[in-house]
Amino acid sequence: MRMDHVSYACERDGLLATTERISAALGVDAVRGGVHPRFGTRNMIIPLADNKYLEVVEVLDHPASDKAPFGQAVRARSAAGGGWMGWCVAVEDLAPFEDRLGRAAVPGNRKFPDGRELVWQQIGILGLIADPQVPYLLKWEGDPSLHPSKVYESDVKMSSLTIAGSAERVTEWLGEPVEKPLEDVAVQWMAPHGTPGILAVTFETASGAVTI
Fold it and tell me: Among 2, 42, 87, 108, which one is least packed by beta carbons within 10 Å?
């Protein structure tokens, strides 16, 4: 179990403009991800150090986005002005989570321009929609060299999260201490005033600490 990535729903001016602001703040380039056909979304990727990445995601005008929980989550967050939507934990085995949540993981995929395909299984988006402080979970499949953090070598490091919520609640959700996936990322827990979830993420960059 490890911290894999953070997801930022694009703001009202769309995916490219939102991504440009974030990449400029971090002093790095973003890379086009692609369309998630099962979810009705598309993304841009900013690779980070330590096998992590930042995803900026946009909902598409597509029937899949109305049916898939991930598409629904992106649409709702962007409609509220955009911002941090959630965080994701990668695991080797989703079966324990499927048993606890009483439902099956769903497949995800996106294709590269050269025909290669990134594939994974994920679960927990309904939990994130109900309580945005909790992470969703995925299991990467296929070629590990296609992991979004591998697009280019990055020196930008995710150093801390500020989350409106509680470590106890997230530990209950994960079924393991929340410190396990966050062993190399500091977390400041704050009592929610309104909707829980990620309030800010701090990155160590060539220009110093940057908080978004």
Answer: 2
